[in-house]
Amino acid sequence: MTMVHPSVHPIEAPPVTDHAVAMPRHTLKDTQGMPGTLGGFLLRSLQFSFAVVSLSVMATTSDFPSVTAFRYLVAAVSLQSLWSLSLGIADIYAILVRRGYRNSRIVSLFSIGDGITSTLTFSAACASAGITVLIGNDLNDCAQNHCSRFETATAMAFMSWFAASPSFILNFWMLASK
Amino acid sequence: MTMVHPSVHPIEAPPVTDHAVAMPRHTLKDTQGMPGTLGGFLLRSLQFSFAVVSLSVMATTSDFPSVTAFRYLVAAVSLQSLWSLSLGIADIYAILVRRGYRNSRIVSLFSIGDGITSTLTFSAACASAGITVLIGNDLNDCAQNHCSRFETATAMAFMSWFAASPSFILNFWMLASK
Q1: Model ipTM?
Q2: Alpha-carbon dihedral B55, B90, B43, B155, rounded to 10 degrees
Q3: CA within 20 to 30 Å of A61's CA: A142, B2, B100, B154, which one?
Q4: What's this model's pTM, rounded to 2 decimal places?
Q5: Which of B157, B150, B146, B151 is nearest to B124 (CA)?
Q6: Are the CB atoms for B22 and B107 separated by under 8 Å?
Q7: Per-residue pLDDT reduced to its tens digit, A90-125
Q8: Which residues have a Cβ under 8 Å from the Cβ of B178 and sit 6 or more positions away?
Q9: Strand partners, A34
Q10: Which chain B residues touch A131 with a CB distance below 8 Å?
Q11: Ranked by mean pLDDT, which of A34-48, B24-38, B70-84 comes out on top?
């Protein structure tokens, strides 16, 4: 019982450093809803659709220019729809070329733009909701006003803000966790 | 010309790992405005003061309960003032015992609470602003309404929101960068 084959068996050393570098550092990078993902594109579509519906419904009422808050709502949802359309196109491009947005500057630009447009949409929706409730509940004056259209436009603006919030929070989180 | 001193000179190895562990990982941890710092306490004081002034001014008008948005403003700034008072006391405690809030759960609780209260305050301020502008500019009916008091209360609620936003953003950033 002696060692008959005292030969050296070479073992491949595991490439420790290369492996560590190849590991993803940020697990949130490919979360659905981030810019450049299908979830992000769906969020942009929802924002755009709700903003356009809100704009159309408000624009069909003949007397919206007489109230400052309703004019402000029209301006805010117009801006929101343009912003969401642009970012949706950017998402489609990123999906087609199979790349995400990793650049810190672009993500901070997206985050700031999302913060501004969603805050404007939310403030306009709140102002319109205050006036709609004033007309409908406090003054009971729906007979000579388009209460249902005002309510629909306000609700759609709120829905647009609901769809815009995840985009803003995810972008901000991605920016902060870098 | 031969080597006359072929002696080995020992060199102290630098303590790489210990040094790396001792380095601070998060440079944002002691930024002024975070919970448990003097800046954080000042922000809380500003939020509390503006919310209390807004509440007092709105409560002195006799006809605020007839408008839903003004009742909502009173409720929202009451909640904001209670929240800011509690967090301000927590900041004073942290300054006195010379410790910050590093616990991830507490910071996420602060962040969520800040998000909710500041959103409520902002929405109430926007709704009140819409109605104040409707009364003052669109209907020109300031003669039989307390326009200036409504405007003051709304402006103070906006100021309270402005002071609440940095707290929320810093807490959220601190939470995301952990």
Answers
A1: 0.75
A2: -10
A3: B154
A4: 0.78
A5: B157
A6: no
A7: 999 988 988 777 777 888 888 899 999 999 999 999
A8: B26, B104, B107
A9: A32
A10: 130-131, 134
A11: B70-84
